[in-house]
Specification:
Helix content: 40-55%
Length: about 220
């Protein structure tokens, strides 16, 4: 497998005014593309690893040869996180979760507003560059977490349903240092259908392997993968 940029599900200007066309273009064509190129370079001598999805690489990061582990962690993480991020946005956002996703959020956080408040607090509390996530564990318990840099929750046995890019390149051209304005605007373009689909895929596909304790069968089903 040669990793490649996924096609965006919308035009570069489709998310305006919340994310401007210049930010989208630079973010996708320069930042995400660089992660893909560097990941392919790191795996050139490892054809067995090239057959795995990038999510599988991150989920079993400890099995990656030490000499390329950091490159896979950083660039594989950058590719996975962005591939996951783009479909979670939609020009037709600003709706609400429904069905089983709504039940999950209400059970874990009391209400959608309660979830948004806790997620926003986590996003604004992250020091430096990284991501904020809504995740589930192997027992389908929901939680909010943050990761530094391009780390992905999969490396910690958590399964992402929704992620927010908090690197400055995701918002600085428009919002400058006003992360709070970026996070507030982002809620208007969350694609809840995509998030709900991620949760349903997890429920349908994820099985815990009794020997390894690892969840199998989900990683190739993540939307955006």
């Amino acid at each position: 497998m040669t990793y490649h940029l996924p096609k965006l599900p919308y035009e570069f200007n489709s998310l305006e005014p919340y994310i401007d066309i210049r930010t989208m273009t630079v973010h996708y064509k320069m930042h995400h593309a660089a992660y893909v190129d560097k990941l392919n370079k790191a795996l050139e001598a490892y054809p067995d690893l090239q057959s795995k999805s990038v999510y599988e690489l991150l989920y079993e990061l400890e099995r990656i040869p030490e000499e390329i582990r950091l490159a896979v962690r950083n660039n594989g993480g950058g590719h996975a996180n962005h591939s996951f991020f783009w479909p979670s946005l939609s020009p037709k956002g600003n709706g609400e979760p429904s069905g089983q996703l709504a039940e999950l959020i209400n059970t874990a956080f009391g209400s959608l507003d309660g979830f948004k408040a806790q997620f926003t607090q986590a996003a604004l509390g992250l020091f430096g560059s990284g991501w904020a996530w809504l995740c589930v564990d192997a027992d389908e318990k929901a939680s909010i977490t943050t990761t530094p840099n391009q780390d992905n929750p999969l490396s910690g046995d958590l399964f992402p349903l929704l992620g927010l890019d908090l690197w400055e390149h995701a918002y600085y051209l428009n919002y400058e240092n006003r992360r709070v304005d970026y996070v507030t605007a982002w809620w208007n373009i969350v694609n809840w259908n995509n998030v709900g689909g991620n949760y349903l895929s997890f429920k349908a596909q994820a099985k815990v392997d009794e020997v390894s304790g690892k969840v199998k069968g989900f990683l190739n089903k993540v939307k955006g993968g």
